[in-house]
Backbone:
């Protein structure tokens, strides 16, 4: 009798447990009656028919975070990129979510991956690397309709990373190094060019000033000759006078030279000067 009572009370407890269900906040339970969808239980206390009704699915109604795995994508100009994403979805129609697709999380992940490949496949490398917001907008627009058929709402999708593959990074580094080397050579060539131009301009300016100085010196000499000629009536004398003056100045410069330890003057210097000055 005692054994039967225990079995009876155990049966009653199991029956009550199967018939009285409490759905927690943040979940919705799908109930099947004899293998067929019956209703969806919202958060709270519910009474089911034991052994006939069955809680087939417990679906979270909070936002679900889906980590989209990393994948390789080929751009329009045949560059290989590595990209991944993260999506935030919410179940808005529990019945469609559990009966519309076998695994809605895997389905959303696959749709995002294939759509991301299609979007990046229409872009060139530089555009793909610099248009993250544009890619995100296209991705969300393309996926929203697909997930709505499964009773889901795509809250947001973010591109976590878009980067060239290892081989692409190596090629881009080589390209960048070559470009920097080219710019350095151009800069050096421009510097040499400017230096040559400035040196030529310096020589030209120096030549102009030398010519101007020679003209000024010649004009000064001519003026001196004219003044000497006007002071002395003999026409040849002024030239001789200036030559004698330069001769004496040259001897003075030679005496100042550190290498000129001995200066030999002609014995007939006075006669020579007189001769140069035109006197006999």
Residues:
């Amino acid at each position: 009798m005692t054994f039967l009572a225990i079995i009876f009370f155990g049966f009653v407890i199991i029956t009550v447990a199967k018939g009285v269900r409490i759905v927690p906040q943040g979940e919705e339970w799908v109930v099947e009656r004899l293998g067929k969808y019956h209703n969806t239980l919202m958060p709270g206390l519910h009474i089911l028919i034991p052994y006939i009704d069955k809680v087939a699915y417990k679906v979270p109604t909070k936002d679900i975070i889906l980590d989209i795995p990393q994948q390789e994508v080929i751009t329009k100009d045949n560059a290989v990129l590595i990209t991944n994403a993260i999506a935030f979805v919410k179940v808005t129609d529990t019945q469609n979510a559990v009966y519309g697709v076998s695994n809605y999380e895997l389905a959303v992940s696959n749709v995002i991956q294939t759509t991301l490949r299609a979007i990046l496949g229409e872009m060139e490398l530089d555009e793909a690397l610099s248009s993250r917001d544009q890619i995100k907008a296209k991705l969300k627009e393309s996926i929203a309709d697909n997930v709505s058929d499964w009773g889901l709402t795509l809250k947001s999708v973010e591109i976590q990373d878009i980067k060239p593959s290892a081989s692409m990074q190596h090629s881009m580094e080589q390209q960048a190094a070559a470009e920097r080397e080219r710019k350095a050579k151009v800069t050096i060539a421009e510097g040499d060019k400017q230096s040559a131009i400035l040196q030529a301009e310096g020589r030209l300016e120096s030549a102009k000033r030398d010519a101007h100085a020679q003209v000024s010196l010649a004009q000064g000499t001519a003026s001196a000759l004219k003044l000497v000629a006007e002071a002395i009536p003999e026409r040849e004398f002024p030239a001789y006078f200036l030559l004698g003056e330069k001769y004496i100045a040259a001897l003075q410069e030679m005496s100042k030279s550190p290498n000129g330890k001995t200066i030999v003057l002609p014995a007939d210097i006075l006669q020579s000067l007189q001769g140069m000055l035109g006197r006999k």
User: Anything to note?
Assistant: Strands lie at 20-23, 27-33, 36-41, 44-47, 53-60, 64-74, 80-91, 152-164. Residues 214 and 220 are 10 Å apart (CA to CA).
